Amino acid sequence: MGAFDFLSKLRQTVQQVVDYSARSTPTSSRPAYAVIDVETTGLSPKFGRVLELAVVRVDQNGNIVDEYVERFNPEGPVGATHIHGIRDSDVASSPVFHEVSATIIERLRGLPVIAHNANFDLAFLHAELAAAGWTVPPISFYCTLRGSYDYLPHAERRRLTDCCSATGVPLRNAHSALGDARATAGLLSVYLARGGTVHTELAIASAKAAASTWPLGPGRSPLPRSQRSEHSRQPRPVRITPPRPRAPALLQQISALSIEAVLDEGVPAANTAYIELLLDALEDGEITDAEAAGLNDLRQAYSLSPANTSSIHEAVIVALDDGHVSNDERTELETLAQLLSVPPAKLRTVIDHADRARKERLGAGLRPLPTDWADGEPLRVGDRVAFTGCDEKQRNRLEQRAATLGVRVMNNVSKFTVVLVTDGSFDGSKQAKAREIGTRVVHPDKFDLLLNLDPPTFLGVRGSAVLSG
């Protein structure tokens, strides 16, 4: 088939699927999409193995047509039993992946794959099929995590549990392949019912899947166990913090850290899926050398260069150090930064800047907050502000003063921006965003006053009862 014929067929199939999706038709019993989920021995698709795979095929409306689930003997340790619940004894008599690979391919053949954080699942699926001797064509897919930006634009986090909670989709037996695949199918059905971009994206994915040719059988022998056994040499976990009766504050910060806080550091939104995976890896309070290596191996699956990965890791560290961490938490941050290969100088720069800002504030002659002050809370170390439409000379002076006092000057407005400084001479995207989310807007002269006020200790973190600065 020539390139022209292929493109012609692709356009024709897209139009047919779009036309079909636009019609109101009874539920079909024919599978239209293959929703998958995998549970794995670790994070590295290169050396990790699939422990459990579920394929839930659904029709055009997202209704379940049939289900398939299988556990596999990974020919080595099962990894994080505390997450997926699978023990070595549970899979000792299970088939090895290559023994049932043909069955799996028949369930996927001709259908687009749907998954939540699809890059992860597909990286492992591709690695297992390749190791089983198959020549794997490009797999057409739709990611419900990425789709959440269209259907859940204001979500704090975009894990499967977050998206299901926001849409009312039940998530039973989380971190089991079948439980997660059913929940992802439910999430897809919500998207389909709401209309919008999902129909066009699925039409394109369906057309690509229909035009893709899977081989009828493996073209070579499966890789021997010895060539896939490096994942079994996993070192003991290195804890971010020592065990304590309750969750350390830094781990609470990691759990509470929103994706937007990381994106606010300048990371593109296209990297959300990798950030979610990274935060999930950190939330149990430990990260092993194998997990760190696994994150490195996943770069290719997420189309990240080493520089992209480094910038994301640095953004996570900076987002966690909001200028109000204790000495113990800073020690934990330093350990975390080391495990993520963030240069010590990067973290030290952030910490030192906050320390210098606090010292600067002590000698800056800041005035107590007037008792009749009615213009909002003063500014604190770590607060984020943005400028637009100001006199350039005054703006430069205020930005330098703000930075000296530990106030971060950002290039964008987000929900983390406490003040937008403007004289009203320009009404652009920052002003529009501030109106949309209710950011406080002040005149440069008023901002100058705010910089010279000392927050009372009882205000702390935007009204909470902790020490200021």
UniProtKB/TrEMBL annotation:
Coiled coil location: none
Residue span of region Disordered: 213-245
Keyword annotations from UniProtKB, A to Z: Exonuclease, Hydrolase, Nuclease
Stored Gene3D superfamilies: BRCT domain, Ribonuclease H-like superfamily/Ribonuclease H
Domain of life (superkingdom): Bacteria
GO molecular function, one term: nucleic acid binding
Pfam families: PTCB-BRCT (PF12738), RNase_T (PF00929)
GO CC annotation terms, alphabetical: cytosol
InterPro entries: BRCT_dom, BRCT_dom_sf, Ribonucl_H, RNaseH-like_sf, RNaseH_sf, TerB-like
Sequence ranges assigned to domain Exonuclease in this UniProt record: 32-197
Protein name as catalogued: Exonuclease domain-containing protein
Lineage of the organism: Bacteria, Bacillati, Actinomycetota, Actinomycetes, Micrococcales
